[in-house]
Design a protein that fits this description.
alpha+beta, Jelly Rolls, Cathepsin B, Chain A, six-stranded antiparallel beta sheet
């Protein structure tokens, strides 16, 4: 679901945090892939509850104190090639009372019954929102598979990015040392013409998988992430699921500022950023304007963001240099969401 959502005032910073639970993967491995300013640590660590009944499993994360948050983006990464489907469900404590569970769309081959969101939590495909700030949240994940137990026997990570309204903030200082990651360029426009304008998300995932030496064809990834009910190739957590099938873990984060992105890049972690802009807002952009698009951040230097923009006509033009101030505006002041994919065995 690329690029839709509220805009933020220029110079504003979104308050953000990321919680996660893991199985078979050391929590420190996940923490080391998350910008320090976005990590949230519980005073009391409660275990997640996992139950399996035949073809359905349920993971219930511990209560997370996401006080003040109004915007929630979940993701699930299982390092398994077994076929499975998932659905995220969220409940929030508002005014001292827990809301009914609200459900995202189901992802994967096994269908889930539709669930109308008629409570205080609104659901937009894969994003949960509340009008009032919450006091805490519960996240749970339903997993369906011919052998659900085998899916959960693999290493997995369940995360929730929670963020609140923006507050004025000066742009943080960014380390002057340039960063350039060798992410192989791939153009979505060189794919089947019927799909070329719609597959920025799987193309970006293909580029980052290539960076981690897990090559994958764009057409193959597009088939995997396509969501028939919404006719979308850009449902954010579907991209994380696809990377997990190839042994690369990941999470979704609503980035609070450029410093968090710069930290990832300096750690060797490309960021797939969801941008939106009108004509003239991003100088030299591969697409003149877009209501929603994804590109790969590969580095920065001297006020310039280095990117791989899959909208370039050919792979030769994918590697680009965008003004950092403009890139920050069309990303961090719009959706601010990014995919972070990381290898757990490097």
């Amino acid at each position: 679901m690329p690029g839709f959502g509220e805009d933020f005032a220029s110079g504003a910073i979104v308050t953000a945090g990321l919680w996660g639970v893991t199985s078979g993967l050391a929590p420190a491995t996940l923490a080391e892939a998350i910008p320090p300013g976005c990590r949230r640590v519980l005073d009391v660590v409660a275990p997640s509850a996992v139950s399996v009944q035949g073809e359905e499993a349920l993971i219930v994360a511990p209560e997370w104190p996401a006080a003040g948050a109004t915007h929630f983006v979940p993701s699930f990464s299982a390092l398994s090639t077994a076929p499975f489907s998932v659905r995220f469900e969220l409940s929030a404590r508002i005014g001292g009372a827990w809301t009914p569970w609200a459900a995202s769309v189901g992802l994967g081959p096994a269908p889930f019954a539709s669930s109308a969101a008629d409570g205080p939590i609104a659901v937009d495909v894969d994003v949960f929102r509340t009008a009032a700030a919450v006091e805490a949240v519960n996240l749970r994940l339903r997993v369906r598979a011919p052998d659900a137990a085998s899916v959960l026997a693999a290493r997995w990570v369940l995360t929730l990015s929670a963020s609140g309204p923006p507050a004025p903030s000066a742009a943080p200082a960014v380390a002057a040392t340039p960063v350039r990651l060798a992410v192989p360029p791939v153009s979505q426009m060189e794919a089947d013409a019927a799909l070329a304008h719609r597959i920025c998300s799987p193309t970006c995932v293909a580029m980052v998988l290539g960076y981690w030496r897990r090559s994958a064809a764009v057409a193959e990834l597009a088939r995997e992430v396509f969501h028939p009910a919404t006719d979308l190739y850009g449902v954010w957590p579907a991209a994380i699921l696809a990377a997990g099938r190839r042994g690369i873990a990941g999470y979704l984060l609503r980035f609070p500022d450029w410093a968090a992105a710069a930290w990832c890049l300096a750690r060797g972690l490309p960021v797939i950023a969801s941008v939106r802009y009108a004509s003239g807002e991003l100088t030299g952009a591969a697409a003149a304007s877009t209501p929603g698009h994804l590109l790969v951040l590969t580095g920065f230097e001297d006020g310039v963001a280095l990117v791989n923009d899959p909208a370039a006509p050919t792979s030769a033009g994918v590697s680009r240099r965008y003004a950092l101030d403009e890139l920050r505006r069309v990303w961090l002041e719009r959706s601010a969401v990014g995919y972070v994919l990381f290898a757990v065995d490097r």
